[in-house]
Amino acid sequence: YKKLACCFGILCVILVLAMFGENATLTQQNQNLTTELDQVKKINQELQTEKKNLTEQVESMKKTWNEQNVSQAQWIIDEYCPKSINTDKKRQCASCQKGWLHYQSSCYVVNNEAELKNQKTWEEAREDCRGKSSDLTVVGNEEEKVKTDEVNFWVDKNINGYWIGLRAEGGRWKWINGSDLTNQAWIPQQQATDGRCVTSLQNREWKSVSCTDKNAWICEKKALSI
Ligand SMILES: *[C@@H]1O[C@H](CO)[C@@H](O)[C@H](O)[C@H]1NC(C)=O
Ligand SMILES: *[C@@H]1O[C@H](CO)[C@@H](O)[C@H](O)[C@H]1NC(C)=O
Ligand SMILES: *[C@@H]1O[C@H](CO)[C@@H](O)[C@H](O)[C@H]1NC(C)=O
Ligand SMILES: *[C@@H]1O[C@H](CO)[C@@H](O)[C@H](O)[C@H]1NC(C)=O
Ligand SMILES: *[C@@H]1O[C@H](CO)[C@@H](O)[C@H](O)[C@H]1NC(C)=O
After folding, report:
1. Among residues of the chain, what percentage have pLDDT more than 70?
2. At the top level of CATH, which class does the domain 107-221 belong to?
3. If you measure from the C-alpha of residue 39 to the centroid of ligand 1, how many angstroms do you get, rounded to a whole number?
């Protein structure tokens, strides 16, 4: 019996030790989980703050966006529907902005830059047109060609030509909208050598000149259908 009791006692001790061991592991796990929970809470709080911050930013961007839309809409109204000079203040809308010439389905602005320092290279002229939500003019038919050469009504001696949206690309005359020049007779006997761009001028053929020359220029944009 003594031996048996002894064995039993040892077993008890082992069990108790095992239990303590198990408890220690559990406590450790518990501590670990508590730490993790704290970390998750902290991250959650940071995310909440970030979300609030982003929401505020989105709201403020929406506000600016709206204000910009309103001022842009106002600008378009003022450009296309200027208030009449008469006292009745009625607005009169047109297909083209004030200062632009309406012809067929396009609006044109002829940049009569007589001062040499204000004249532009072909690229610079194109930039200027783009700034006016337009591009250098593209001529689609004979009538438009006649009109393009005609609008140069105010020919100053300092103006040697007006840039149009035609330039040599890969040995061909190409419009800036990607189309080939359909009527070769418009620019007779002039090789489409890269680096050459085309100018129009009243009472003369279109002329191929270096794209880095300085000239006046004509911009074109679609007319509004009013
Ligand atoms: C296990 O640990 C808890 C606290 O961490 C303690 O209250 C309990 O008495 C322990 N149990 C044993 C059997 O040691
Ligand atoms: C508690 O975390 C430590 C490191 O942070 C790790 O070494 C240990 O194994 C973890 N204990 C449990 C029971 O998960
Ligand atoms: C909240 O946004 C502002 C800018 O609007 C920024 O300066 C700040 O650092 C942001 N705060 C947090 C916690 O992201
Ligand atoms: C602002 O205008 C753009 C188009 O120009 C439109 O897509 C957008 O929905 C407008 N935004 C608001 C807030 O009206
Ligand atoms: C380029 O413009 C001309 C004249 O407006 C037009 O006839 C032609 O179809 C246009 N090409 C492309 C690819 O839009």
Report:
1. 97
2. alpha beta
3. 26
